Amino acid sequence: MIEQIYTFFTVEMVYLWLNVGVLPFWFVLIVFPQSQISRIFITSILPIFFLSLAYTYLLYLAYQGGYNFLQNFKLYLGFTEISNLFENQSFLILFWVHFLAMNLFCGGWIVKDSQMFGINKFLMSLPLIITYLIGPIGLTIYWIIRIFYAKRISLYD
């Protein structure tokens, strides 16, 4: 039984499940940001917990496959080194989970923060969609919108 589960959850299958699995979270964040479902399941630690479980499982698979984790520190040595790291499937999937978790966390923060300032949920759909696709630009767009609702510029809130 355990062997069947282990052979089912290959890196490719985990990648597929991760990509499909975050879509309902983003859908609720964008369409129903003020719902109880959003408050309990999306803007809580729950989705990050699930992504960290997937991350831990992928770390285990990488370890079992003989991945050299010390080579990850080469990413600071230059662009060539980081591009070499992205050729490794284990590093790439770990990076992808990291990317999904950070963007989802930022989306949850945007929803919580926008509710504190009473920002229209339809207006918030644009920065949330952009945060899903390209995180930092979505955060910047949200910050610009937030300036108008907060009526002040604050760099450390």
Structure summary:
This protein has 157 residues and is mainly α.
Protein model, in words:
- This protein has 157 residues and is an all-alpha fold.
- It has one domain (19-33, 44-148).
- Helices cover 76% and strands 0% of the residues.
- It is built from 8 helices and no strands.
- The chain has helices at residues 2-8, 11-31, 36-42, 46-64, 79-85, 89-117, 121-133, 135-150.
- The longest helix has 29 residues, at 89-117.
- The mean pLDDT is 85.
Strand content: under 5%
Cα Rg: 18 Å
Structural class: mainly alpha
- H/E series: HHHHHHHH
**Helix content percent band:** over 70%
Q: Let me know the average pLDDT.
A: 85
The protein's oligomeric status is single chain
Unreliable runs, pLDDT <50, ≥5 residues? none
Sketch the major β-sheet: none
Question: What tags apply to this protein structure?
Answer:
157 residues, single chain, globular, 8 helices, mainly alpha, 0% strand
